[in-house]
Amino acid sequence: MASTFSQLASGMVVSAEIFLLTLLFSLPLGLIVAFGRMSKVKVIQWIVKIYIAIMRGTPLMLQLIVVYFAPYYVFGVKISQSYRFVAVIIAFSINYAAYFAEIYRSGIQSIPVGQYEAARVLGYNKTQTFFKIIFPQVIKRILPPVTNETITLVKDTSLAFVIAVAEMFTIAKQIAAKQASVTALMVAGLFYFVFNYVVAFIMECFEKKLSYYN
Question: Which superfamily, per CATH, for 2-210?
């Protein structure tokens, strides 16, 4: 029993690492992509549109496979064992950046034009206007959809099994098959539930803190 829980614990750590690293890279990358999506340069705008369409229009599982095998089949680079985890982070980050980019874009475009005009009157430049006036309002507006994507990310970490990264659900399936018992799967389900509950609770705290009515 102790061995089973130690194996599950190691899987939990891997799932948490995938989750945290994906957010670390995809949130700022999503903002950059959003700027590209709203760019006045048509070439940049269309390149970003195509990128977003591909990321949102194809399965994350397929993207994992492409990111993992592309270096070998396209460039002839030998794939190392350590690259498996790196490939997972790359695939997850570029996938979720596309979703976050659209969330950012909707939030930025929802801000009234008067906010920009008022900032200009006060002498703010474009950078100051965005980060001191616009972005704080955008954060408040996009928290609910960002929370939804974050919760989905927790569950999507189980897709890492596609390129043999032993995260929580993969280990649970292996233990369940070996012991002919669903106990490990039940523990995995409980882990995802608790993880999602904690994420939702933290995001709700942020929403309450940013609420104008509190």
Answer: MetI-like (1.10.3720.10)
